[in-house]
Design brief:
The structure holds 2 protein chains of 2 kinds. By secondary structure, chain A is α+β, with helices and mostly antiparallel strands. Chain A is built from 19 helices and 19 strands. In chain A, a hairpin with a 2-residue loop joins β6 (140-147) and β7 (150-155). In chain A, α10 runs antiparallel to α12 and α16 (438-448) runs antiparallel to α17 (453-470). Chain A is globular, with a radius of gyration of 23 Å. Chain B is built from 15 helices and no strands. By secondary structure, chain B is an all-alpha fold. Chain B folds into 2 domains: 2-82; 106-291, Orthogonal Bundle (MetI-like fold). Chain B has helices at 2-32, 37-42, 48-58, 64-76, 90-93, 103-138, 143-157, 160-174, 190-224, 227-234, 239-268, 271-277, 282-291, 295-322, 325-328. Classes of the chains: A alpha+beta, B mainly alpha.
Chain lengths: 513, 331
């Protein structure tokens, strides 16, 4: 299959619809059946407010079934239109015009139009609103309704990734003037409408009669989403045929499940990565040589083998992952080399080093064990790591961003700019290393507005190099998304890797064989 | 009968005092846990401003003592407060829509489910343990007696989740007779509901049977040495009749006490079983609420647990008084 550059599609997204239509399925889809999902990540505090979504259950329910965004990252990584039909950018990537799909209605019968887009985006910047997508929407200087099915955005600064950002699961489109009602009942434009919703327990969805995605996705008649946070109960439910698919397969029981002929495990390496950020404004991490010594003091392969039990890949202190377009996999590896680490320490003028590493399993599953493995491997380099086990509760408030060195995880971002500007740009609140680098900062701003794909690739390569060699984060591994389904289910053969469960879109994209 | 009423009133008053103490203990304990609702709900996104905004919305910025008395004031008037989890934060929505889910609304359906599970279990466990206990007393020291004792003691000595997995293995995986997932929901027919509830009910039955069965057996055997039983035997009554007609009525008091204790356990001790079988009862709600520090819900759950214990114990005491003529008519 000829791969059309994602960026090529950005300037004129009109081709998107054509592409989706030409992506012929390998297996014939058929309508029917009730999909039963057993899902972790449900809470009694769940609601249909997409601004608050952060866990897999509600992302699948809202972003993946009930609501639509303006754009969508297809399973193969292409950006396609969802509620937007096409889009165009000005040469400096500052002004963006979106043509909206016509004839779309919300589940309550209201027709979809430009007002819904403007009001839904404003939800994120409303007075006092707490939205994870706020930085994205804040960059819009002006939103203009050209007509009912055309909107124009003027950005504060050019951003070539803008259409990509609008596919974020926080930016769902709600009916204008009925937003509170829509949040209470779950009224969107998606393929499935809400029949019943019991937060933290069960959600029942049914297929709408007609939809603009008809013939392309939405094969199940209805969907039952059962909240099963307990991992053994979830695996059991799949093994005994109580559900058709589960997320977050327990690595320890994965071999047993693999042995079951009725069950298929599907696993993708995305951008999810586990990190050990150091505060680069606190001694001894102010010293570049110390940071580099620590990067060479961890046995990355051992962590992949023992903590992820092989369900992941070695990372090179680079937050950009294999699911990103400009991922540079040719940067020289910061491999485990105790002698080199010891030599670097000597260059830093230190004779041995003794530091605390704060960890709790709230940071990522197995974080405490991973820290102890790090401790053992660093000993050979004369680095004495003291693992401080912190309580899981309040970890993100009391430890992360506060303790000089701790464990952390990132689910990754769909674009390079998004990841860098979330956690690596100078001065942003989640810059968990306090790292500042003039060249990196300069590149970040130029690359953001660069529409030429080749130039951008070069710029992002240099940035990844800077983070990997000089940055304050040790990123030893990418963790796979490992999910499982019964062999009654099937799919197009291409599974999205932006998020778990086919980028959270299993409900739309899969069908019963 | 006056003495019975006096005892009931006394016990009820003591019960209220106990509930008060429980609420203080729980409130203090939840407050001592690291992290609070705002931090738990925001996770990695817990910026100081966002945490402060949510705390302000929920009144968490006030000192604990003030918060406790506010809650107590409401609780005394029957208002258990609003669930934090479903609170519609002004800071999230931008404008407060005023929609609130009360704790009572959130707990009611879950409590009904837990009561259903307890009822199903009691319907199986109580008759089974009584019959086994009587038979064990009748055929004491026989192979049957030993076998019953060993089996029930083994099951009570195993952790609940282990029993649950063993039952899942035999009744759901190897012989798919019962569903391993007990996700009951509103609108299910009674039959379906019963089928889905059977595995957790059987697990709980295994947990509580030994206690009740052995108490029945011991209480009866204890009486068999009494002169009036000897008299009954000398009259030539059959051993079964001696036990059921003569010994059992006098052994009822301790048996009722043990049954009441176990019924209370069925309401308060089901957390693990509910989690393993994904049964949407109050135990699971309790775990979820502790996880996110939803204090009003945690408080209400604890009060329900404590009240169940107090009331069932009171009921047991009253029944044992009524079953004993000597206590019913004190000199």
């Amino acid at each position: 299959m000829t791969r059309i550059s994602r960026r090529g599609l950005l300037k004129t997204g009109a081709a998107a619809g054509v592409l989706a239509a030409s992506g012929l399925p390998l297996r014939a889809q058929q309508r029917g059946g009730t999909l039963r999902l057993g899902l972790a990540g449900a809470n009694t505090s769940d609601s249909w407010d997409s601004r608050t979504h952060s866990d897999s259950y509600m992302i699948m329910a809202a972003h993946g079934a009930v609501f639509d965004c303006l754009t969508e990252v297809a399973a193969n990584g292409e950006l396609v239109g969802e509620l937007a039909e096409s889009w165009e950018a000005s040469a400096d990537a500052v002004t963006w015009t979106f043509k909206l799909r016509q004839g779309v209605t919300f589940h309550n019968g209201k027709a979809f139009g430009a007002d819904d887009v403007l009001d839904s985006l404003q939800m994120h910047t409303a007075e006092g609103a707490k939205s994870a997508a706020k930085p994205i929407v804040e960059n819009i200087a002006e939103m203009k309704k050209i007509n009912d099915h055309e909107v124009e955005f003027t950005l504060k600064a050019g951003n070539a990734d803008f259409p990509f950002l609008l596919s974020d699961y926080h930016i769902c489109i709600y009916p204008s003037g009925q937003i509170e009602e829509a949040i209470a009942q779950g009224i969107g434009t998606g393929l499935y409408k809400v029949e019943s919703f019991d937060p933290g327990v069960r959600t029942l969805l049914s297929r709408v009669d007609s939809h603009y995605k008809d013939g392309k996705s939405g094969w199940f008649d209805s969907v039952e989403m059962i909240a099963i946070n307990d991992s053994s109960a979830r695996m059991n439910a799949l093994m005994t045929g109580q559900v058709d698919a589960v997320n977050r397969v327990d690595f320890k029981t994965e071999p047993l499940m693999r042995a079951n002929p009725m069950i298929n495990i599907f696993e993708v390496t995305g951008n999810q990565h586990f990190t050990f950020p150091m505060l680069t404004n606190v001694d001894p991490f102010t010293n570049l040589k110390v940071r580099q010594a620590l990067k060479h003091a961890v046995d990355r392969q051992e962590l992949v083998d023992k903590i992820l039990l092989g369900h992941g890949a070695v990372a090179n202190d680079n937050p950009i992952g294999p699911a990103n377009q400009y991922f540079a996999d040719d940067i020289e590896m910061n491999d485990y080399d105790p002698d080199k680490a010891a030599a670097l320490l000597k260059e830093a003028g230190l004779d041995g080093l003794s530091i605390d590493l704060s960890a709790a399993n709230a940071a990522f599953p197995g974080a405490v064990d991973a820290s102890q493995l790090y401790q053992a491997s660093a000993k050979a380099a004369g680095i004495n790591i003291n693992v401080v086990q912190e309580p899981d509760d309040g970890y993100w408030s009391n430890v992360w961003l506060k303790k000089p060195w701790c464990a952390c995880y990132w689910s990754g971002r769909a674009t390079e700019d998004w990841m860098f500007s979330t956690a690596y740009e100078s001065g942003v609140p989640w810059n968990d290393t306090g790292w500042e680098n003039a060249r990196f900062q300069e590149l970040l701003l130029t690359a953001r507005a660069e529409l030429d794909s080749d130039k951008r690739r070069e710029q992002y390569r240099e940035m990844q190099m800077l983070v990997s060699k000089e940055g304050g984060t040790v990123i030893p591994m990418y963790a796979n998304f490992v999910d499982a389904h019964s062999n009654k289910l099937t799919n197009s053969g291409i599974i999205g890797n932006v998020f778990q469960m086919d980028s959270s879109r299993m409900i739309e994209r899969w069908w019963f064989a | 009968m006056h003495s019975v009423i006096r005892i009931i009133l006394q016990r009820l008053a003591l019960g209220l005092l106990t509930l008060f103490v429980v609420s203080v203990v729980i409130f203090t304990a939840v407050n001592m846990l690291p992290g609070d609702f705002a931090q738990a709900i925001l996770g990695q996104g817990a910026t100081p401003e966002a945490v402060d905004a949510i705390r302000k919305d929920l009144g968490l910025d006030q000192p604990p003592v003030t918060r406790y008395f506010q809650w107590l004031g409401g609780a005394l008037q029957g208002d258990l407060g609003n669930s934090f989890a479903q609170a519609n934060f002004a800071s999230f929505v931008g404008a407060d829509s005023g929609v609130r889910t009360t704790v009572a609304q959130q707990i009611a359906p879950r409590f009904a489910n837990t009561m259903f599970l307890a009822a199903v279990t009691a319907c199986i466990a109580v008759p089974v343990s009584l019959v086994l206990g009587i038979l064990a007393a009748l055929f004491r020291n026989s192979v049957f007696d030993r076998a019953t004792n060993v089996t029930t003691l083994t099951s009570i000595s195993s952790p609940e989740f282990f029993l649950a997995y063993v039952l899942i293995l035999f009744l759901a995986v190897l012989n798919p007779m019962l569903p391993s997932l007990s996700n009951i929901f509103e609108g299910m027919s009674f039959g379906e509901r019963l089928e889905k509830t059977l595995l957790p009910a059987l697990t709980l039955t295994l947990v509580v049977t030994a206690h009740m069965m052995r108490m029945t057996r011991a209480a009866i055997i204890n009486l068999l040495a009494s002169p009036y039983i000897e008299m009954a035997r000398l009259k030539g009554l059959s051993p079964m009749r001696v036990i059921v007609k003569h010994a059992l009525p006098n052994a009822l008091a301790p048996i009722i006490n043990v049954i009441a204790l176990n019924l209370a356990y069925l309401i308060t001790g089901v957390v693990v079983v509910e989690v393993v079988f994904v049964y949407p009862g109050i135990g699971q709600l309790f775990v979820d609420s502790v996880k996110i520090r939803d204090i009003p819900v945690v408080q209400a759950c604890c009060l329900i647990f404590a009240a169940a214990y107090i009331l069932l114990n009171l009921l047991a005491d009253i029944l044992s008084i009524l079953s004993n003529p000597r206590l019913r008519h004190p000199k």
